[in-house]
Amino acid sequence: MRHCIYPGTFDPITYGHLDVLSRAAKLFNRVTVAIAVSGGKGPLFSAEERLEMVRPNVANLPNVTVVTFSGLLVEFCMAQQADAIIRGLRALSDFEFEFNMALMNRHLEPELETLFVMPNEQFSYTSSSLVKQVAKFGGDVKHFVPPNVAAALAAAYAPKPA
Fold first, then answer.
1. Fewer beta carbons under 10 A from the terminal one: N or C of the chain?
2. Distances, alpha carbon 44 to alpha carbons 94, 124, 157, in Å
3. pTM exceeding 0.85
4. Contacts of 103 (CB under 8 A, 6+ apart)
């Protein structure tokens, strides 16, 4: 049984992430979405909130599970008995970072493969950071994220009572 890990902060998950995930679910018997607890990015949402945003959006993929993790990704992958790591590449600008990360992971665990998956071109410019920026200034994000995520972003950026 082939098992891959799809890691990320998913802060928040976007349709681009879900597109990469659906492609991975076709290629592997088991896919684990691994939400990094912090990832050093200072996430807007807690790991538990991100987990709860992802779960309903993968309910239609019976071979997908969602968990959180901390620490080294390769150690998590080995503990999960994964065969591969899936990473999405939106544009050439993603490649250098992802390539270096894949080489370091290979150095740490030579048996673990990293596979790059390109999302549908309609998602090539979508990133969690850009979606948060649009939402922060009141823009419409419904074309970039599922409804439950759009609602969570609206709530996170709603004016706070004085």
1. C
2. 22, 22, 10
3. yes
4. none
Q: Which tens digit of pLDDT belongs to each residue from 77-89?
A: 999 999 999 999 8
- The residues carrying an active-site annotation are 17, 41, 90, 128
Contacts of 44 (CB under 8 A, 6+ apart): 11, 12, 132, 156
Return the pLDDT at 40.
63
CB–CB of 12/52 below 8 Å?
Answer: no
HEC secondary structure over 136-160: HCCCCCCCCCCHHHHHHHHHHCCCC
Amino acid at 109: E
Domains and their CATH numbers in the chain = 3-124 (3.40.50.620)
Give the separation between CA 85 and CA 145, rounded to whole angstroms. Answer: 23
- Consecutive H or E run containing 36: strand 30-36
> Would you state the pLDDT for residue 159?
84
Q: How far apart are CA 161 and CA 51, in angstroms?
A: 27
